[in-house]
Amino acid sequence: MTMSWHTMMEFEPPLVGCVISGRNYSFDALRATKECVLNIPALNLAKQVVGVGNCSGEKVDKFEKFKLTPLSAARNNWKNQHPASTIAFRPTATTAQGYSITFCGQQTLQRELLRGRHMTFWKASCWLAALLWVCCGAAWAEDAPKPANDCAAERGRHILWENDMFTGKLFGRSDKWYTNGIKVYSSYKENCVPGYLPNFLEDRINGLSDGNRYAVQTGNVVGQLMFTPKNLTISTPQPMDRFWGGWLYAGIVAQRQPYDTQKLGKELNKEEFETLELDIGMTGPISGAEQVQRGIHAISNSTMPYGWSNQIKAEPGVQLNYARVSRIWKRLEKGDKTPHIDLSWHYGGALGTLFDYVNGGFTVRIGSKLTDAAPNVIESPSIGQFRKINNGGYFLARLDVKGVVHNTFIDGSLLREDPYASYLSSKHIVPQLTFGGVLELKHDDKENPEGARLSLLIHRRGSEFGSPAGPGAIFNFATLNVEWDL
Does the pLDDT value for residue 288 go beyond 90? Predict the structure, then answer.
């Protein structure tokens, strides 16, 4: 039989623990003979191992069907030395040459066999999409009016920090999988493009105004994401858990909101906006994820990580993220022009060398002075609101469902060999429930009417991957968002 659920229990005497279902034909054979043989197949036997795991020895002779040659083994007197043992493990010679360990879940091995075929396709697709996005907008944007490049004054500064330690009191601390994320960006005033951008990219962003039908706001982005397995203390590879890895990036974000055609002047339509973010960065040791995690854990006296030598290798990456939000219902109080309850829906996606997915969902907000844009997670591009800030606050609840095609920190790198053979596969559907609160404070100074916004969002994300040992668990993390001078 093909077995994946096993573990080393003792070196002297040598003990291996394994789990075999009582529904398997092998279970009855073990109880009858009190003996079994452990074979470690080489990678060239992968197809046969998958086949062995897909049929029962009760109905077919597996040696004959898969052209395997049984060899005799020297019998030892293990049972006489250890009479308390219920099963004796004895050494055997096999037709598999070498010591290439394959954890023998059939779904896992099928993925390993198909992976090489998909790799070339994904490399070509991601780089081609990024190249087209940068280059194909010149004709669309060439007639768009270029605003004055007076961007000396930044309109807002934003810091997003995501970590599971914020959820420790509510759900129990779970320092695993998505370990930490931070994103810092500054935004400029409306219809102003930073002058440092190359002309082709400046034209592309100016084209987003679509003949002055939209107000466009841009910003600079710097961020880091960090991912680890569940167990931080294991220094060896963990093929049944996600990769160690970090992503350090910088980019530019552009957000646009349409002008209200039903009203005179340039008043904005607060019912919808959309955002586009282009990031370029590096994975691997250069991302600094190991140093950041070790520093934070040293300060907080937490468990030190020991497996960063197994992280995703260094490689350049490019990511394009898109999001669109539309308000579909709102309720106004008498004498107030801003809604106190609203419902919006969103959709978007990501395309790049690290993450490829589409997503969509709904958000409900209840409170006062509801802003144009509700805060979101780091991976979702957003600058924030266009209007001046007011004193107010609200609560929100959001449901998001993601359709995942590829995740480098689960499925492995697209551009380089993985640090070790992994047997995970991304879940194609990943739901996420979010709830939290937002507080806005306005300055009393009439000459300086800007203010600040503080938000805390709690996220409960569904399992992101599966393995022969079973699906990954649901986990929790939170986003702390601080914005000022809006």
Answer: yes
CATH 2.30.110.10 in the chain, residues? 6-104
pLDDT recorded at residue 13:
67
* Cα angle value 26/472/224 (rounded, 5°): 145
Token pair of 449 as six digits? 């009417």
CB-based contacts of 342-349 (< 8 A; 24+ apart in sequence): 342/370, 344/374, 346/400, 347/323, 348/321, 348/322, 348/323, 348/324, 348/380, 348/381, 349/321, 349/322
pLDDT tens-digit readout, 434-457: 999 998 887 666 555 567 888 999
Instruction: Identify which of 432, 423, 374 has the alpha carbon closest to the alpha carbon of residue 403.
Output: 432
| Rounded alpha-carbon distances, angstroms, from residue 229 to 179, 236, 240, 314 | 9, 11, 9, 18
Q: Which fold has domain 109-484?
A: Lipocalin (2.40.128)
For residues 155 and 483, what is the distance between their CA atoms, to the nearest angstrom?
Answer: 11
**Antiparallel, parallel or unpaired: β 88-89 and 35-36:** parallel
Q: Which of 226, 222, 357, 212 is closest to 281 using CA atoms?
A: 222
Domain 6-104 sits in CATH 2.30.110.10: yes
* Segments of the chain assigned to CATH 2.40.128.140: 109-484
| Cβ count within 10 A of residue 12 | 5
Question: Which candidate, 255, 126, 143, 242, places its Cα nearest to that of 192?
Answer: 255
